[in-house]
C-alpha cells in the first residue's frame, strides 16, 4: 500500500509512455502479469492517464457505489453527448427507455425481429449455396444493425430507407471515434477528447448533420401519430416501437415537439443496442458444438416454424449456456469505466482513490477464475452452464458480462433473446465451418477482442 493509501502503481520505465505499449500489444497478458504481482487492485499508466484496474472480490464495490459514476466514466472514453448533442447524464435516461419501451413489449419486438432477420439473412446470401465470410464481425454487424434499427424505428419509418442509412452511418462514425490514436492524451487526456470532436467535425460533422436530417424525417411521422391520438381517442392503436416510447416520454410536450431530442434518442438506442449485440453475436459464431445446438433446435422447434415464441426461445438451455460461455470468453478485457466523484472512493481493504480517478474493471480476473467457473476456465466449453441453473442474463460477483449493480445492462434480456434467435436461424439454415476442436482465434486490438477468422456457410439441404 502506498503512503496515501492509494492502490499500488505498477512500475514502468519511461514516464510518458508508461504501460501503453504493453497494454496495446497484449492487454490480457499484461493485466494478468500485473495481477499476479500486485493483486486485484492496481494502477497503470496508459495513454498518459492513470487507470486503476479493479478485479475480483472488489469489482462489485465499484458497481454498487454512489461515489463512482458509470456515466462520467463512459463520457471520458466516448464523448457521445458532445458528438450527438445530448444531455451529459444520458445513460440513465436511455436505461429507463429500455426498461419502459423495450422490456414491457419484448414479445412484440422479438416477433418483428424474426421477420426482419429472415429477410436480412436472405439478402446477405441471395441464391448462394456457399458463402465465405471473411469477417464474422462485419457479417453479424450488418445483419443485426439492419434488423435492430428496423424494429426500433417502427412501421412508417421502415418505409423511409434514408433513415436507416442515417442511423447506421452515425453509428459507424461513433464507433470509429474509438480508434482515433490516443497520442494527445500524453499531454492531457482532455486533449484527446478535443481531438475526437475535432476529427468528427472536420470529417463533415456527420452525426450532428444526420441528427438534424433525422429530426426532419421523423417529424411527419410523429405529427401524424399525435394527430391520430387526438382525433381517434381511445380507438387509436398506438404502434409498439421506440418512437411511441419517445413520443410519450415526459420530456416531450406534444404541442411543441422537440424532434431533435427524439432523433438523438433513437440514434443512441440503435447505437447501444446494435454495437454490443453484434460484437457478442459475432463471438458466438466462432464457437463450436454446432451439432448439439442443432439437435436442441430440432427439439424446441421440430416444425421449423419461421417465428418462434419467447417461451420456446427460453427452452433453448444449451444455446443459453453456449451464449454465456461466449460472453464469458469475449468482450473488452479492461472495461466498464467509472469515474470517482467529488467524495473520493474507499475500498473495503483500505485502499482509497481521490476524486477524478478513472477505474476500469478487470473482467478476466473474474471470468477466468478457476473457483468461479465449472471446469477449466481457459477452454471454451459451450455446455459449461448447461443444467447448472446459471442463465446468461443472471449477473453476479462471478459473472459480469452485463455489468452489475446500479447500471447493470437493462438490455441484456433483449440482447440474449436476439442472439438466440439469430443463432437459431443460422444453425437451422447453414452448416457453419470451420467446426474444429478448438475455438478459432480472436484478435486483440487496442484492448478490444475481435473475432478474427474466416468462416464458411453452407446452406443445409434440409
Ligand atoms: C450482448 C449484448 C450486450 C452487452 C454485453 C451489454 C453490456 C453492458 C454493460 C457491461 C453495461 C455497463 C454496466 C455497468 O457498468 O454496470 C451496459 C450498460 C447499458 N446497456 Fe448494455 N449490453 C448489451 C446489449 C444492450 C442492448 C441490446 C441494449 C438496449 C436495447 C443495452 C442498453 C444498455 C444501457 C442503456 C446501459 C446503461 C445502463 C445504465 O446506465 O444504467 N445494452 N451494457
From TrEMBL:
Heme binds at residue 409. Its cofactor is heme. Coiled coil: none annotated. GO terms for molecular function: heme binding; iron ion binding; monooxygenase activity; oxidoreductase activity, acting on paired donors, with incorporation or reduction of molecular oxygen. InterPro entries: Cyt_P450, Cyt_P450_CS, Cyt_P450_E_grp-IV, Cyt_P450_sf. It comes from the Eukaryota. The keyword DNA repair does not apply. Keywords: Heme, Iron, Metal-binding, Monooxygenase, Oxidoreductase. CDD domains: CYP503A1-like. The keyword Iron applies. It holds the Pfam family p450. Belongs to the cytochrome P450 family. PANTHER family: CYTOCHROME P450. This is 7862_t:CDS:1. It comes from Acaulospora morrowiae. The lineage of its organism: Eukaryota, Fungi, Fungi incertae sedis, Mucoromycota, Glomeromycotina.
Amino acid at each position: 500500500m502506498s503512503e496515501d493509501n492509494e492502490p499500488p502503481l505498477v512500475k514502468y520505465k519511461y514516464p510518458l509512455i508508461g504501460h501503453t505499449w504493453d497494454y496495446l500489444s497484449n492487454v490480457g497478458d499484461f493485466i494478468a502479469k500485473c495481477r499476479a504481482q500486485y493483486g486485484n487492485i492496481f494502477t497503470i499508466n496508459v495513454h498518459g492517464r492513470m487507470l486503476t484496474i479493479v478485479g475480483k472480490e472488489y469489482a462489485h464495490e465499484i458497481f454498487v457505489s454512489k461515489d463512482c459514476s458509470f456515466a462520467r466514466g463512459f463520457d471520458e472514453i466516448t464523448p457521445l453527448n458532445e458528438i450527438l448533442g445530448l444531455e451529459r447524464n444520458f445513460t440513465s435516461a436511455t436505461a429507463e427507455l429500455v426498461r419502459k419501451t423495450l422490456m414491457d413489449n419484448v414479445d412484440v419486438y422479438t416477433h418483428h425481429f424474426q421477420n426482419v432477420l429472415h429477410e436480412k439473412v436472405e439478402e446477405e446470401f441471395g441464391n448462394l449455396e456457399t458463402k465465405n465470410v471473411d469477417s464474422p464481425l462485419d457479417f453479424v454487424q450488418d445483419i443485426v444493425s439492419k434488423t435492430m434499427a428496423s424494429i426500433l424505428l417502427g412501421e412508417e419509418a421502415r418505409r423511409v430507407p434514408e433513415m436507416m442509412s442515417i442511423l447506421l452511418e452515425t453509428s459507424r462514425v461513433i464507433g470509429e471515434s474509438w480508434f482515433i490514436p490516443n497520442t494527445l492524451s500524453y499531454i492531457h487526456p482532455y486533449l484527446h477528447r478535443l481531438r475526437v470532436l475535432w476529427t468528427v467535425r472536420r470529417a463533415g460533422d456527420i452525426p450532428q448533420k444526420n441528427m438534424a436530417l433525422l429530426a426532419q424525417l421523423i417529424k411527419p411521422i410523429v405529427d401524424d401519430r399525435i394527430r391520430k391520438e387526438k382525433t381517434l381517442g381511445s380507438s387509436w392503436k398506438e404502434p409498439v416501437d421506440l418512437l411511441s416510447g419517445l413520443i410519450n416520454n415526459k420530456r416531450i410536450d406534444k404541442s411543441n415537439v422537440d424532434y431533435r431530442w427524439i432523433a438523438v434518442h433513437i440514434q443512441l438506442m440503435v447505437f447501444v443496442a446494435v454495437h454490443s449485440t453484434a460484437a457478442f453475436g459475432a463471438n458466438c459464431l466462432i464457437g463450436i458444438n454446432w451439432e448439439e445446438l442443432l439437435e436442441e433446435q430440432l427439439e424446441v422447434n421440430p416444425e421449423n416454424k419461421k417465428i418462434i415464441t419467447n417461451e420456446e426461445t427460453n427452452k433453448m438451455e444449451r444455446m443459453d449456456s453456449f451464449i454465456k460461455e461466449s460472453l464469458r470468453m469475449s468482450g473488452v478485457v479492461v472495461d466498464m469505466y467509472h469515474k470517482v466523484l467529488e467524495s473520493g472512493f474507499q475500498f473495503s481493504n483500505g485502499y482509497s482513490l481521490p476524486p477524478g480517478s478513472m477505474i476500469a474493471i478487470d473482467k478476466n480476473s473474474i471470468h477466468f477464475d478457476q473457483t468461479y467457473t465449472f471446469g477449466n476456465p481457459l477452454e471454451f466449453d459451450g455446455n459449461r452452464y448447461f443444467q447448472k441453473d446459471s442463465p446468461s442474463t443472471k449477473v453476479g460477483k462471478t459473472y459480469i458480462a452485463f455489468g452489475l449493480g446500479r447500471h447493470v445492462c437493462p438490455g441484456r434480456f433483449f440482447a440474449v433473446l436476439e442472439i438466440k434467435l439469430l443463432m437459431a436461424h443460422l444453425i437451422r439454415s447453414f452448416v457453419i465451418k470451420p467446426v474444429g476442436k478448438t475455438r478459432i482465434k480472436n484478435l486483440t486490438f487496442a484492448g478490444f477482442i475481435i473475432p478474427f477468422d474466416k468462416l464458411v456457410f453452407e446452406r443445409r439441404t434440409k
